[in-house]
Amino acid sequence: MNMKKTILLIASLFFILILFAQQPGLNTYIIYFSDKGVNKNAGLNPSIYLTEKSAERRIKQKIAFDQSDIPVNEEYVQDVIKIGATILARSRWFNTIVIEANIDMADKIAAFPFIAQIQILNDNDTKQHSLTISEKPFLKAESMQPWVNEIRKNNTTDSYDYGAAYNQINQLNGQYFHNNGFSGQGMIIAVIDAGFNSADVMTCFDSLRANNQIKGTRDFAQPGNNVYATTMATHGTSVLSCMGAYSDGQMVGTAPKADYWLLRSEVAESESILEEYFWVSAAEFADSIGADLINSSLGYTTFDDPATNHTYADMDGKTTVVTKGAEKAAEKGILVVNSAGNSGNSTWKYIGAPADGDSVFTIGAVDATGIRASFSSVGPTYDGRIKPTVVAQGVGASIFSPGGLGSGSGTSFSSPIICGMTACLWQALPDLNNMQIIEAIKSTASQAIHPDTLMGWGIPDYQRAYILGNKPADNKLLVYPNPFKGNLTIVFPVSIYGKYSLEIFNIQGKTVYSRQLNDGSIRSLQLDDIGNIFSGIYFIKVTNGLMIYSGKIIKM
Questions:
Q1: How far apart are CA 170 and CA 459, in angstroms?
Q2: pLDDT above 80 (res 41)
């Protein structure tokens, strides 16, 4: 080969290398859509997107349906996909999607008329130089080990033999609910976690499977995965056991008869801000299927990519994506229970996100005697609010893992202990909303008079919370026949006086019948003019300005 050809070859190779170096890599972007592609003034039909249970929760708590209940516009999403982008997450609440794309794709997507904003989340070129694989801050201080203490049979008349779990339930005065038949029946708890390794075969969950209490699973971090796989994290398995386990004489959870959805949003092997977006997707799904409570033993402060780290200033209840999602879930009527975190002994020491949310029920940890765990993250939030909200046993808590009965330490376990117990309280007080349930628990906890930023309002007393929250007057209407075809008779629990209004709503929250009357004193009322309403489920509300009476009816 002559010198000229050699020079040309080297020049060609150099040019190719330059071209290759300039080829943009794949980055992660957040896309904000300008609208949902529907008429904002058009009537909403949430039954298309939400289950009956979800709609009922909204109506019961007087929560209006709005544009945030409508999914992102699928035509917009498909246009983005056609450019070559990969969809990683989507949010109907915030009208966003998270994509993986190169710079050229991002430029083309930004030109679409329905794009309000496109923002880079992870610049992979920068990330390659700054990436440091670190432990997950919220899991760092946690420990799980086989149970080594002696298990004694309960010498009580409790309905369950709690075995190793006796102290963590007794500390909350939780047996009161189980002994009176409230074990979470009819309540739906969504567990958002990092995986549920072997929960589908473990004997402590036999009762859940036999009674169809595990309603389903979903993986938002890596869609399509089996959340039960032995390659998955065991963290969610142990979290679930604190609520749903039933192994007589060994361990019984705080809500052994509740229904559960197992949702994976966390990748245990890494810590990425993208997981916050997975969390929001999981919370939106929990809303759509009618979950009453979310347990999230997760939290976010710092990440493998330091460029995305949060600061303490971000812990103000309104900055991080995951906290905004948790607040939105609470706004939709879900009671969000989240671990405070395990940073109490670290330089960070504060609670993380979404535990900083104002409407989030944030749970710290104590030991079996009620002494605060040194690892339990503390408050206040950056804007000065008291956190955690309450505490429960998180040192030497009874848990199950695929290896069997064990002992766990971390706020990851105090959180579900509280979540399950709260489900039982809400089951017993169905007329209260999510915030009223939290207030009843706070008001009767051990530090209610002097809450602080170490243990919040303290250790709850669930029996006292029930007494505080229990309304002496029965506000349920007796309605017959139910289901009905034509006429309907309504019987009030007590005589109702003076002016009153009666309204019937469909599951979309739309009034289909109303009546204003002044009948003096009545105890019952017959409606003979509602036979023409469509078949379906409806809700009746009657009020005289002092009391509100309600009931559910079915039109055949």
A1: 11
A2: no
DSSP state of 436: H
SS3 538: strand
Beta bridge partners of 100: 28, 86
**Sequence-distant (≥ 6) Cβ neighbours of residue 283 within 8 angstroms:** 190, 192, 294, 325, 326, 328, 329, 334, 336
Edge-to-edge strands, sheet with 404-409: 143-146, 404-409, 397-401
The SS3 of residue 14 is: helix
- Pairing label, strands 27-33, 115-122: antiparallel
User: How would residue 4 be classed by pLDDT, with cut points 50, 70 and 90?
Assistant: very low
pTM value surpassing 0.90: no
How many residues in the chain? 556
- pLDDT mean over 29-47: 79
| Maximum distance among all Cα pairs of the chain, rounded to whole angstroms | 113
Choice between 171 and 268, residue whose per-residue pLDDT is larger: 171
- Rounded Cα–Cα distance for residues 508 and 505 (Å): 8
Where is pLDDT greater, at 31 or 544?
31
Task: Find all residues with CB under 8 Å of 204, minimum gap 6, and list them.
Answer: 241, 245, 246, 247, 250, 251, 400, 405
Q: Which domains does the chain have, with CATH numbers?
A: 19-130 (3.30.70.80), 160-469 (3.40.50.200), 478-555 (2.60.40.3080)
